[in-house]
Structure formats: structure tokens, C-alpha cells
Design a protein that fits this description.
- It is a single chain.
- This protein is mostly helical and about 110 residues long.
- It is built from 4 helices and no strands.
- Helix 1 runs antiparallel to helix 2 and helix 2 packs antiparallel against helix 3 (about 45-75).
- The relative contact order is 0.14.
């Protein structure tokens, strides 16, 4: 919800969708690391290593989402909000699976 709100505020300010989605995801994934560490996956130890993998996984995921959005918006001419919604779904599903497998595995 925070990410959507931030995206919407930046959209209203006139920023390009690539900027407002990338910026919002970066802010959200920093909070996400600690929340997932403490509550979702309840992992302990190797914090620096986990954080490094988390950054790699989420930057890769962000890159994929941005490519997906650009492809859908610029090449397929899908409306921005639909392409961004598809990107959000991808980000959540892929991010959960990859974080579970590589970042928070025991």
C-alpha cells in the first residue's frame, strides 16, 4: 500500500513512470528486508550476507519489472496503470519466491 501511495504521489507530481516505479520499489524493498527478516521468514544470523543477496535479488526483480512495464506501455500500448499493476503482481510473486529461496533460506 505504501508503494502504491508513493507511486501515485510521484505520478501526480508529473514524474515519468520509470522513475516513480523504480524509486517507490527501492524505498519499499529497504523496509521489506527488515520486515521479512523479522516476521515473514523469521531468519537469524548472516545478516550482511542476507542483505547482499536481498539487494541483488530485488535489483534484478526491479530491472525485470521496468523492462516488463516499458514493453507493455511503449510496445504493446497498454495503459500505464494496467502495466504497472502487472509489474506489481510480478514483483510480489517473483520477489517472494526468490527471497525465500536465496535470501531467507535456513
Amino acid at each position: 500500500l505504501f508503494t502504491l501511495g508513493l507511486m501515485y504521489l510521484l505520478y501526480l507530481e508529473g514524474y515519468h513512470y520509470i522513475f516513480y516505479t523504480a524509486f517507490s520499489y527501492c524505498i519499499a524493498f529497504l523496509f521489506s528486508y527488515f520486515l521479512n527478516l523479522l516476521f515473514t521468514f523469521k531468519s537469524e544470523g548472516a545478516y550482511l550476507k542476507r542483505f547482499f543477496y536481498f539487494i541483488l535479488v530485488n535489483l534484478l526483480n526491479l530491472f525485470i519489472v521496468e523492462l516488463l512495464q516499458v514493453g507493455l506501455i511503449e510496445l504493446v500500448n497498454i495503459k500505464n496503470y494496467i502495466a504497472i499493476s502487472i509489474g506489481l503482481i510480478w514483483y510480489a510473486l517473483f520477489g517472494f519466491i526468490m527471497n525465500q529461496k536465496f535470501v531467507y533460506s535456513k
